[in-house]
TrEMBL record:
Solcar repeats lie at residues 8-89, 281-367. InterPro entries: MCP_dom_sf (IPR023395), MCP_transmembrane (IPR018108), TXTP-like (IPR049563). The lineage of its organism: Eukaryota, Fungi, Dikarya, Ascomycota, Saccharomycotina. This is Mitochondrial carrier protein. The keyword Mitochondrion applies. Keywords: Membrane, Mitochondrion, Repeat, Transmembrane, Transmembrane helix, Transport. The keyword Lyase does not apply. Pfam families: Mito_carr. Belongs to the mitochondrial carrier (TC 2.A.29) family. It is a multi-pass membrane protein.
Length: 379
């Protein structure tokens, strides 16, 4: 009697998947830090005003990794549970008296899964971006060669004909007070006709921003407290739609490229029911598939990722309105190629993350199966 190999049970998939995803996110985080740093750095302004970055240890580069790892674990948990429920819900009976999910329904289940997991990662993406900004804030303050110049307060001079930002370097990773935002947008100071209530509310927020610029949060929970103090619950929802768009684009580009390339490599493959991570092909071919898929993903979704990073900045809600406006402003001010800033480290991260996750999943799965067959407290 022939038996068809079954996929992993749900508990094994959850344990192995969450562990592998978290470890892979931790190992590849330096690439994520490099990507975000390239996207958010105004190197021309730094060079002009002789402000340098002092990032000298691995702990500096790993700032924000806790948020990414937590987000990866939650995302993977949601992915497996959602996909398992959706595929079982849409399964149909077959002649062998077993339920099977048809190919079109698998696509629908995958789309539902992608939507659910994307919702979970939005808060963690915002926290990660804020933590990286805080590290860059500390680094630029330490690398400022002019101690007399407060690059976090933005005491801009408005009596000059030139642009208000042309005469002084303003640290982009600091929280901007209401006066700085008003100067950046209009070149004018606060109106004298603002109401007392408005002034009182702004004064409180401005005081918090000045304090947080002096002592930026570099840990997960302290960052969450500072974000909540300034923006409330809305601090963790910024960039929701653009993040969903990036996730959908990433999944579509990655899986379609992966499947198409794999079909070219092994056009007559007749593997059994797919497991969470199939190992039917060789390691070299698998690595090649991840690399090609990563390149396609970056080519399609990198502009979306750059726009998302800017919308999720500390001052993103103050400086940008929506995704299209943000993209237009970035291209108009810094050129089209800014939309591909950080493409190289992000491509490496996507390729390495996929390979590491598959490898770690396999090892953790084998370990769990071995431990599952062991018995304790026996005579």
């Amino acid at each position: 009697m022939n038996t068809t190999p079954q996929g992993d049970n749900l508990l094994t998939a959850l344990a192995a998947g969450c562990t592998a995803s978290g470890l892979a996110a931790l190992f590849t985080f330096p690439l994520d830090f490099a990507k975000t740093r390239q996207q958010l750095t105004n190197q021309a302004a730094r060079t002009e005003h002789k402000v340098y970055v002092n990032i000298g240890s691995i702990s500096h580069v790993m700032t924000g990794s806790s948020a990414l790892v937590a987000g990866s674990v939650v995302k993977n948990f949601s992915r497996i549970v959602s996909y398992n429920w959706a595929s079982n819900f849409m399964a149909i009976d077959t002649r062998s008296e077993k339920k099977k999910t048809s190919a079109p329904r698998v696509v629908i289940a995958a789309a539902m899964t992608g939507f659910m997991e994307s919702l979970w990662i939005v808060p963690f993406e915002r926290i990660k971006t804020t933590m990286i900004e805080n590290r860059l804030l500390e680094a630029e303050k330490a690398g400022n060669l002019n101690p007399a110049l407060d690059i976090t307060r933005g005491k801009l001079k408005t009596h000059h004909k030139n642009s208000v930002t042309a005469r002084q370097y303003l640290l982009p990773h600091a929280y901007y007070t209401s006066e700085v935002v008003n100067m950046l947008k209009s070149g004018k100071t606060h109106s004298k006709f603002l109401t007392h209530t408005h002034l009182h509310g702004q004064a409180h927020l401005d005081a918090l921003k000045i304090e947080f610029n002096k002592t930026p949060a570099l840990t997960f929970f302290k960052t969450v407290r500072q974000m909540y103090a300034l923006e409330g619950i809305h601090a963790f929802t910024a960039g929701t739609m653009i993040t969903l768009l990036r996730q959908c684009g990433t999944s579509a580009a990655w899986f379609s490229t992966y499947n198409a390339t794999r079909q070219l490599i092994d056009p007559h493959g007749n593997s059994a029911e797919p497991r969470w991570f199939s190992r039917q092909i060789g390691t070299t071919q698998q690595s090649f598939l991840y690399l090609v898929s990563a390149l396609a993903t970056v080519a399609v979704t990198q502009p979306i990722d750059v726009v998302k990073s800017h919308i999720q900045l500390k001052n993103g809600k103050l400086l940008y309105k929506d995704s299209l406006t943000t993209a237009y402003k970035l291209v108009a001010k810094k050129g089209f190629w800014l939309l591909y800033a950080g493409a190289f480290p992000r491509g490496l991260k996507i390729a390495a993350h996929g390979s590491l996750t598959a490898l770690l999943y396999s090892y953790v799965e084998k370990s769990l199966n071995v431990m599952g067959n062991e018995f304790v407290f026996t005579d």
